[in-house]
Protein 1
Amino acid sequence: MQEAHLAIGHIKFSVMFWGQNTMKKSSTAGVFGLAVASVVAFSAQAKELKFNNPLPESRPETQELIKFADEVAANSGGELGIRLFNGGSMTLKNADLLRTLPRGVVDMSLLWANYLGRDAPALSTVLVQGSIGNVEELEAALPVVKDIYAKEFDKWGVKTVGNLAIPMLYASVFCRDEPVRTLDDLKSKKLRVWSKDQVMTFTKLGVSAQIINQDEMYISMKTGVVDCALYPALYAHTASLQETAKYASYLYPIAAGPYTLGMATSKWDALSEEEKAALQQAADNVWERTNEYSNDLQREMAAREKLGEQGVTFLEDFPQEDRDLFLSTVSGTWKELTDEAGGDAPKYRQQVLEALGRS
């Protein structure tokens, strides 16, 4: 826990952030600076909402959540506060959030639909990574995806307060000891991935893939549990991949559905209209800031360059033939997953395909 004491006149404030013990001084300084810039005097009757954030402090999404918390306080005149618990510090498992959040174990949480397949398979298969190939398709699909997400979360007693867009990412294969340039090369390696659909797709291609959480990826690469890890170069530093991987090669684009800023519906209903408005306005601003993709490729290339300076050799991209094969295999995986999920899943897939002009 980081605690900063602020004094204004005769009033002393404590601004607290919970997260990983490994938080770097530069991140702490940035958070502290943000808090100082917009400190709001909370009344003795101020209401506080605990917010579960599974992402580490180093992720840009966490910085957006810090701004969100700051704006909620400002919008409410200090009557409503958000206490962020970053880096999974509340020890709530992503896969369990549809069970824990509606029960009030935590007031709010960042949710990602692809992690919720055990309890809500129709929700987790709305959009499979690799099924969208460019920014134009992503922008066409997002309104439909957001609407489906909100309806599905509502069934679980979760109010969608807002959404946080994920950049157009580029998945590369990072390998520890040997260069991997083709799918054939990858067949002799053990690969870390983060979702069921990726396991299914790589298995069809003859590659051994297993799901390993981000917080376990570093040690898994370091000790040889896996030889390679699938990950976007843009976020590689958040998992210290530059310390465990010598080589990397780009494989496919990741256009993912947005994160949801979710709240137990019962807790939302208990808020005053003023409190709801304070949350909604801040959440709308999160979407406005993040739903923008014009600089994503530029940031990706800058990240690769920095990783290169840190010792990661970026090889040529996987051959176009391999990349096309991967994406066509993803398409088959998506249909298989929605058919397996049943219920509304096939209908949701069709709605997304229609938005993409592929029906």
Protein 2
Amino acid sequence: MPSAKIFSIGLFIDGNYFKLIDRGLEKEGRRVNLKGLLKYIQKSVAEKYGLDAAACVVTETHFFRGRYRAKVAKDKNMLLSDRLYEDRLIENDVVFHYKHVYDLPDGTPHEKGIDVWFALEAYELAVYRDFDFVVMITGDADYEMLARKIKSLKKPAILLSWHYDETDSTAKALKEEISYQININSLFRTDPSLKNSITEAASS
């Protein structure tokens, strides 16, 4: 008997955007429950496209972010918190993509090339892994053309937005290119119980 079709989902996370989500939840003593979020993404894609939720699987999760060198992070008292944060991602088999970040003269952290790397990696993997769906967690207009190129492969380019305040900061140009948007803030308003499945106590 032939095996049932599995629909693969490639998930690509803008690390800075994701960190802001966690910071927004901190005031409630919460943080993102990545395992719960992955399950929700699978469920949402299945419902949108009329598929069996069990057949929709996030097969790869890629995380892109700038990171201080170890000595600098230690001097800034960030090394332990960074490692604890990474532990949560490792537990969910996340693939890391890091570039070193450095401070500008005014003390502002600066990273270079992460958005380009995100776009190139997402497009290349969409081709070679042949994902059925590509989901991006970001809000940056820089990914407008990535969404367009993903769709040129005849694959849905799905955006998951989750604002750390009530203002929808997702770039208009990006919204216009995606196949559809999973707006977590809107979903919380219609289904408050959702927060319990995709967030967790910060101390857990």
